[in-house]
Every structure is written in C-alpha cells, then in structure tokens.
C-alpha cells in the first residue's frame, strides 16, 4: 500500500526482456539500505517487488500483464521514474490510499500555465473516466493528485510547482502516456452498487444510491 507522495525520482539503467515480461534495473536518488529483497516499491505508480538490491539501485521483475497495462512497454534505459516505498502504518497518510495496481493508461492532451500552476488535461477511456469524480483523488505515474474536472473521455488536473519539481510530471509533454490508478474506495463503492443493481437486492434501511452516498459525504 502506498500514499502517492513521491519520495524521489530514479532512472532506469537497464531493461532485459523475457518473452512478454521484463526485468528493470533502477538507479534511485535515495539510500535504499533500509530496504530488503522482497519489499514493494512503487515505480511510476506500479507496485513492484525488489528482487535484487544495492544501496542506490534495485531490480524488479515485471509480468506480461504489468507490461501490457502500463507505460513500461515504452520505457527505455535513461527514462526517469517516480519512486515510493511502501507505506508504514505508523506514517501520516498525506496523499490517499494507493494500491499500486495500475488500472490503465492515459495520454496528455494539453499542458497550460495558469498563474503558478500547470493545468494538465489527460485523455482516458470512458471506463476510467467513469471511475473519477470532480475533486476526487487519482494517482498519475504514482503521484496522488486531485481531479479538477471530469469529461466523458478526459479529466483535468492542477499541478503545483513543488510537485512538478520533485516528480517526473515536470518533464512531461503533450502526447506522453501516463499510468493511472483511480481511487480505490470509489471503485469498491461502484462495484457494490453495480452488484446490487444486477442482483436486484437492496441493503436494509432503504437502499444505497449515489444520492445517499453524496448526502453522507462519501462522494
């Protein structure tokens, strides 16, 4: 489990292909001496397991499913990546709950300056857009961000200078692909609602609806 608060940026120093899978070696801009083999590290938002580990580098195995679902199919040696070690239960939860399981990818459609902020519009499938709400949370390349606006096939984010400076989002350009993980709690709520609609069952006490969730502060 992660928070979407990026600890540092690393560099992919090596890529080995094994069929449809890959092994990545990543040089980290931080001391990894407190980590151990088998630890989970979010790389551009994807939860990956360290299989080799040195003080400032590690390697991870990527299954074909992970490669197919993420932007790692297009990464090359020298690509910069966002890194976050797994959340400790004693830590403050500064971002939002991020599982590190990428739901899909999006494409940056526009980048616009607005005062001290950068407004990003990202194109996505209708399925992904359907799992987002205005002012809700989303993880982009592993970064916990707040959604400004949701359209049928896109959504809008506002990036502050600090986020642009310490993550890879400051290097991005129009046309770049990004990893996306929609809000975990929102996906569970959507699934429960859909399951109830299909089965025809309703919870005791009058039923659950989007209006009820909104009125009680869940949306």
From TrEMBL:
Annotated Gene3D superfamilies: 2.40.30.20
Lumazine-binding repeat extents: 1-96, 97-193
Enzyme Commission number, as recorded: 2.5.1.9
Catalyzed reactions per annotation: 2 6,7-dimethyl-8-(1-D-ribityl)lumazine + H(+) = 5-amino-6-(D-ribitylamino)uracil + riboflavin
Classification via InterPro entries: ATP_synth_asu-like_sf, Lumazine-bd, Lumazine-bd_dom, Riboflavin_synthase-like_b-brl
Domain Lumazine-binding: 1-96, 97-193
Subunit structure: Homotrimer.
Function noted in UniProt: Catalyzes the dismutation of two molecules of 6,7-dimethyl-8-ribityllumazine, resulting in the formation of riboflavin and 5-amino-6-(D-ribitylamino)uracil.
Name of the featured protein: Riboflavin synthase
